Amino acid sequence: VGPAVGLRLRGVRAGYGAVEVLRGIDLVVRRGAVTVLLGANGAGKSTVCAVIAGGLAPTAGAIELAGADVTALPAHRRVGHGLAFAPESRGVFPALTVTENLALALPRGVDASGGVAAVLDRFPALAARRRVAAGNLSGGEQQMLALAPMLLDPPRVLVADEPCLGLAPRISARVLELFAELAAAGTAVLVVEEKARHVLDLADEVAFLDLGRVAWSRAAGDVDRDTLADAYLTGA
Ligand code: ATP
């Protein structure tokens, strides 16, 4: 089963040239739970994601995946430690149909026709469009197409940077549901969001990014929504 902590950032500092954006980020994302990282526009949420992905090297601190220090590893080697991202636009081939895309995305060892049928069963919206080229799907449908196969082989850690941006409410609800299903299957899910309301009900833990640090983090049930509103006002 492996360690209970899927992803941990310890004292991570990073920025762009002389501008330091992250000033010592400490964050724990447990397996089996959805952690939501909130922060105002420009607080550094995308920078946190870039550092986790390996696209931006921290100047100090460490990143651990399932207990292994991956700080010095390039992006492609982190995938081997079970790290996945959403929206996963690279996962979709626009010229191929939904069925063809699913067949290609199935985890190794899963029977193609059985695996595709299993995914389509759980995603009626994709089933209805199984013969459509992925390039003709909406952004939300493409995201579902990229994420759905993960259910057959859940990643250890999934990082989603504003996954609901620009999605129709019905699709964004389905995407959030999928994160909860992945968490239930043991994935450590980190959802990074600017707007809190639609993700709070899904969250197990909430962390608030402000002034380059995690200002506070607590169980979602202990988050007072008025405090959150205040945090946004002072953080703006
Ligand atoms: P948003 O919701 O707008 O994406 P965010 O919380 O994700 O905000 P970041 O995108 O991480 O914030 O940006 C944090 C700060 O770093 C901002 O002040 C931004 O202007 C700056 N920044 C981001 N990317 C770069 C870059 N490539 N070069 C220089 N500065 C950058």
UniProtKB/TrEMBL annotation:
Residues 7-236 form the ABC transporter domain. It comes from the Bacteria. It is found in: Cell membrane. Belongs to the ABC transporter superfamily. This is ATP-binding cassette domain-containing protein. It comes from Frankia nepalensis.
